[in-house]
Amino acid sequence: MLRRLGFDDALIEKAETAAQDNGTTIEQELLAEGSVSPETYYRRLAHYLALPFCDELDADCVTDRPRIDRLLVQPGGLRLEGKDGSTRFAIVPCAKNLAELHWRLSTRPAIRRAVVVTVPSAIRRTVWEVGARRRLSKTIHRLMIWEPRFSARVVFWGKQGFLLGGSVVSFFAGLILFPTETLLLTHLLFTTLYALTLLIRLASVRASAFPERHSGSIDSDTPLPVYTVMIALYREAGMIPQLVGHMKKLDWPTSKLDIKLVCEADDSETIAAIRATPMPPHFELVVVPPAAPRTKPKALNYALSGARGTFLTIYDAEDRPHPGQLREAWATFNAAPGTLGCLQAPLTIGNVGQNWISGLFACEYAGLFRGILPFLARHRFPLPLGGTSNHFRTEVLRKCRAWDSYNVAEDADLGLRLHRLGYHCGVISCETLEDAPVSIRPWIAQRSRWVKGWLQTLLVALREPGRLFSELGTLGCLVFLTNGAGVILSALLHPLLFVALFSTAAMMIHPDHTPSPLHQLLSGVDLANILASYWVFLRLGLSRMRPAEARQMRADALYLPFYWLMLSAAAWKALAELYHAPFLWRKTAHKPSQP
Hints:
There is one protein chain. It is built from 23 helices and 13 strands. Helix 10 crosses helix 15. By secondary structure, it is of the alpha/beta class. The protein has a domain of 94 residues. The longest helix is centred in the C-terminal third of the chain and has 36 residues. The model has no long low-confidence stretch (mean pLDDT 89). Helix 12 links the parallel strand 5 and strand 6. The radius of gyration is 28 Å and the shape is elongated.
């Protein structure tokens, strides 16, 4: 049939070989290979069937119907209703059924007059447009309707607001009535919490970095599934050429790839850059109608309606993933039980040596993604996922209602929710390269968003503390709280430790004031906490970095106190924004990486 349609024998044989290797059809491989455009291919099919060809459909002729979103996954045919009451059908014919379809149309001329041939992308574009309003509403409110306790739409539940307000009033009342005792008790409590946050990091220092890699554990004859890659983009016009280039390097058959570039409808520059860049058919632009909240998770949830893959991963615009990352994730999923819902690939900073901010950022990422997360995954503790390079079983992701559109750290929130619903997360070793901010203002803006999202996640988790302990287990819950609340508290309190140290030193210098033994003890503990936190930060990060990475950032360790004070400033900024702008997404600007 393909020869009859005029396609070259060499092209057909190449597609046939790929189809045998990938468990697909010759038609799928012919279109995925890129030598034949979908428009050319389906135009020839239309000519063979003696049907009109149309590569653009009028959305005004289509009615949004229940389950129409199925056509985003399998665009077989679409009903078109004209203003004059006529009805036509836009179809995407299949080569293996072409002869039978030709015979049926020949015997039924009335049907032939009502049928046009189109391309799959035209049907998908039309369905995206027709169902936009309904899909957007469902996207935003999906989690809130399904299980309100998991949604950050309401920042404080009534009981939480009462307890928080009562605690603040009690603290200030204690300061007025019993100032010395209140400050001493507060100091003891916060010093203890600060010290507890170091325990997980100390345990991670001693743990090995990664589990055994599964990249070669699957039989080579096993057909690969379809893999969806989603990339949320906003004001990223300059990143499109680099992004497309790295997505093309992924070691996965193009006939089994479903790459979605997700943009806000009012981001005209990025949309224009995507449309101006030549891309294979497995790339698709998904345009999200503008609506609050303007967050990355809302955009991803919207695009999830059209995900075709059995597995799904997300990347950011600046990401340069290892080509073998999808294969390692797939092999790991296949070697694990069905309760493994997500895998986190390590994020590695590519611009380590640019300045001290990027150097310490790289050290922090090395400690987190190559030390702490593997440790947590090994013991099946809740995993605070990173914002990119998460690999999911698509079915599990949908069962969990995907991301919370109102949480600005949607990754950490989803990692916790997976555990609460009976799944667990793991890690893989193939890395994703990205660049760190190199100046203070964008660094603080990015970090304040992360901390704000963590605060949202903690508030959501602690709405029903008893239920949280039941779902995570006592040890798992304590690890989550220590790793979450402890890190935020340590960031908030870090400057106060210096204040306490300086005040004690001032008292010791002053001839009329001698600090009590308890004050001297607490000052010693404060100093130990500061030094221990610096040591663990550097020890954990440097022990997981490659020698070349470590050499580039060793001198940056001198700036570590400033880095922690920046972290504290970001944490206080996040705390303020949680009250007046809880859903504000501060965008981090990106530039193409330097070769």
